[in-house]
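Hypothesis: this fold can be encoded by more than one sequence.
Test: take the structure tokens below, design a sequence, compare later.
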């Protein structure tokens, strides 16, 4: 009962970490060879079995059992079973504490690169949608009431730019995470003269995380920062989901969510429910809950490793998977979203041009406060304005007639190029490691 309680579902979660633990173990073995713990022949034997584990894992035949407790012990047990005493040597000058850290760092690096790639794809889809329908007028709302003329281009372009800002935060999370923890042991250094820089280089980390105690104290902190970056993306997607649910209601009818993204009712034949978008709203709350959970776990701990930190692994993994799946499904939704041009434009009723009428008076020299009052008195007698001409006329930076979509597209292209280089760098480092 104690074993079940303490292990929890770690042995199941760790299936996600097998390849990263193999990478870390190969780098560690190369370092052990350099400092004279392993011979060249022993290193090659270990590498052969470790690469075999990668193959087994690829076909889902590498098992982590409850009595293994975690991926680290499962791999060490496999090495010992295949190589006897040589397998027992692999744990020299390392701890499971810094093993799980390197596994999570490598896992997070690869997942964050995937998140950034799909976020850029969604931002690109939003820009394309904005450009295609940039001259379709819709009402802009404040306090959930019609306020001023807006456009489909302005609306969708705003979310594209917001995702670009989110990418800056994701990049900061990636940079923070890109530090090698290996060699910290249990947080207080190790008795042998190890080469921490070597393993960092082999695994493609930008640098060694210096202070060995901070390495252990940073567990949970880095996870928290990654989840924070993810929560910003999910908040934007939740907001956009909420808007689309509202604006696709029959009472608005600006957009139509494709039938494939809706479900029916068990008793009402006519219903087409926007369940995908509703679930995105809820999943955003799950990521926020994970952020709160991790922060609360780590804020109550004294320095050094504490078993509480085991419970920061699942919220990290869950938040990454939620964000990745949500970005993918949202990209599909945007690409298939339909628009009702007539309903959008007809919703631009005369009162939303009131501010424009006031400024026409300002142009004639009327003080704004007086112009405001004059228009307010005649709000039901305002002259109609052609919505499309109105949105085209606003030419200052970022307005409906000057959305700057070309600049956003250029920014996305440059970010994609930088990201592709980083993805290639990560993959090539792992390939070189396996060939060392």
């Amino acid at each position: 009962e104690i074993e079940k309680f303490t292990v929890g579902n770690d042995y199941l979660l760790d299936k996600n970490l097998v390849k990263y633990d193999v990478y870390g173990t190969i780098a560690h073995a190369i370092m052990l060879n350099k400092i004279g713990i392993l011979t060249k022949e022993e290193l090659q034997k270990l590498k052969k079995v470790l690469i075999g584990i990668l193959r087994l894992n690829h076909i889902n035949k590498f098992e982590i059992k409850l009595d293994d407790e975690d991926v680290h012990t499962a791999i060490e047990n496999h090495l010992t079973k295949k190589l006897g005493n040589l397998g027992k040597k692999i744990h020299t000058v390392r701890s499971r504490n810094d093993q799980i850290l390197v596994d999570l760092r490598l896992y997070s690096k690869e997942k964050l690169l995937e998140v950034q790639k799909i976020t850029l794809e969604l931002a690109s889809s939003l820009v394309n949608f904005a450009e295609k329908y940039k001259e379709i007028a819709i009402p802009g709302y404040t306090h959930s009431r019609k306020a001023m003329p807006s456009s489909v281009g302005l609306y969708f372009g705003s979310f594209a730019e917001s995702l670009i800002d989110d990418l800056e935060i994701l990049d900061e999370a990636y940079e923070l995470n890109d530090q090698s923890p290996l060699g910290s042991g249990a947080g207080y250094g190790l008795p042998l003269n190890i080469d921490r820089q070597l393993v960092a280089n082999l695994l493609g980390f930008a640098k060694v995380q210096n202070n060995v105690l901070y390495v252990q104290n940073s567990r949970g902190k880095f996870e928290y920062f990654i989840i924070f970056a993810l929560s910003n993306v999910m908040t934007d997607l939740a907001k956009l989901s909420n808007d689309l649910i509202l604006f696709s209601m029959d009472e608005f009818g600006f957009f139509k969510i494709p039938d494939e993204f809706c479900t029916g009712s068990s008793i009402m034949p006519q219903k087409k429910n926007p369940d995908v978008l509703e679930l995105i709203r809820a999943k955003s709350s799950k990521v926020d809950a994970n952020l709160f959970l991790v922060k609360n776990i780590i804020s109550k701990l004294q320095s050094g490793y504490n078993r509480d930190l085991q419970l920061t692994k699942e919220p990290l993994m869950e938040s990454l998977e939620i964000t990745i799946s949500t970005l993918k499904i949202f990209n599909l939704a945007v690409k298939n979203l339909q628009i009702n041009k007539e309903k959008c434009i007809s919703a631009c009723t005369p009162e939303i041009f009131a501010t424009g009428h006031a400024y026409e008076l300002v142009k004639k020299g009327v003080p704004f406060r007086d112009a405001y009052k004059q228009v307010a008195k005649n709000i039901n007698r305002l002259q109609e304005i052609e919505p499309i001409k109105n949105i085209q006329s606003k030419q200052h930076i970022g307005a409906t007639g000057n959305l700057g979509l070309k600049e956003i597209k250029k920014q996305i292209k440059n970010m994609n190029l930088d990201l592709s280089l980083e993805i290639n760098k990560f993959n090539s480092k792992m390939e070189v490691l396996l060939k060392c």
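The chain has a mean pLDDT of 94. The first helix runs from residue 2 to 7.
Hypothesis status: open.
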